[in-house]
Amino acid sequence: ISLGAAAGFTGGMLNPFTVGIAQTIAEVPVFSALGYRLAVYAAMLGFSIFYVMRYAEKVKAHPNTGLMYGSETEINEETAAGHADLSFTGRHGLVLLITALGFGINMFGVFQWGWFLSELSAGFLIIGFAAGLAGGLGINDTFHSFVDGMKQVVYGALIVGFARAIVIVLENGQIIDTIINSLASAISSLPNEISAIGMFAVQIVINTFIPSGSGQAATTMPLMAPLADLLGFERQIAVFAYQYGDGITNSIIPTSGVLMASLSIAGVTYERWVKFVWRLVAGWIFIGTAAIVIAMIIGIK
Q: What is the pLDDT of residues 192-224, one digit of tens each?
């Protein structure tokens, strides 16, 4: 689930909080080069599916090779699966329909009504209550389910707070600006043929310190867009370097609040996750590098 979301975020063609902001700052048409981004997204998602399915087949054939083998989380999941009623009922279908409609309304609200975190949070709360009632939980059990869910999220929320604290220290200490300026200066000394790849590498490094997509765009694109002009390639290439540099390593860096919260809720330790995901991240980096090089060759604008 996490990797599906990561592939969509990284390769997303219509993400207003990353691509939209970066292209606006770089003064290129918003959501331009959509077809090319779609092709890169398909490559990233396809590789992710292949990677996950290959791992699943390996664990199915030899369970003791799984990275979660023998862990408390795996034992609890096996126990729960043994008592689960897997029959699909009409109530399940209604809950699924409510969830799909709710997500659709939230997406429409983002693009048409300018919804952001407050509106989206309210939307998800409404989806949760409606789904609970439709699923037959009743008002009291629906509230109890919310409380149980929050218990699982609290630990993740604390980790998100600690991860954010690192970023705040770097920002308020004026360390981020120094790092970005030094890295940008290093890129300018590279040959033009590899400067775009260098820009991609710089964005990967910066993402460790600024895991926020919109924050990284606002911080780096005012420098990277003019730098692209000086180095002689299209500003769209700088946006590509930002987009893939920002998204790819979100699945492995410990400063990503979303990643750490997901791992804590799922009961997966960070060390086990890194052992599982590092090859996938390396593959994504290869795809991102190839996408940037090809974009330069064919002259994407």
A: 668 889 899 989 988 888 887 888 888 888 888
What is the structure's pLDDT at 111?
82
Q: Is the pTM of this model over 0.85?
A: no
Parse the chain into domains and list their residue ranges.
2-80+148-298
- Tell me the two tokens of residue 83: 């008592």
% the chain with pLDDT above 70: 90
Report, as an integer, the average pLDDT of 131-144. 88
Q: How far apart are the two ends of the chain, measured CA to CA in Å?
A: 33
Q: What is the pLDDT of residue 245?
A: 93
What is the 3-state secondary structure of the chain?
Answer: CHHHHHHHHHHCCCCHHHHHHHHHHHCCCCCCCHHHHHHHHHHHHHHHHHHHHHHHHHHHHCHHHCCCCCCHHHHHHHHHHHCCCCCCCHHHHHHHHHHHHHHHHHHHHHHHCCCCHHHHHHHHHHHHHHHHHHCCCHHHHHHHHHHHHHHHHHHHHHHHHHHHHHHHHHHHCCHHHHHHHHHHHHHHCCCHHHHHHHHHHHHHHHHHHCCCHHHHHHHHHHHHHHHHHHHCCCHHHHHHHHHHHHHHHHHCCCCCHHHHHHHHHHCCCHHHHHHHHHHHHHHHHHHHHHHHHHHHHHCCC
Measure CA 135 to chain center: 30
Decide if 102 contacts 127 (C-beta within 8 A). yes
pLDDT 10s digits, 105-126: 988 998 888 887 788 889 888 9
What is the C-alpha separation between 296 and 299, in angstroms, rounded? 5
**With contact defined as beta carbons under 8 Å apart, do 115 and 106 qualify?**
yes
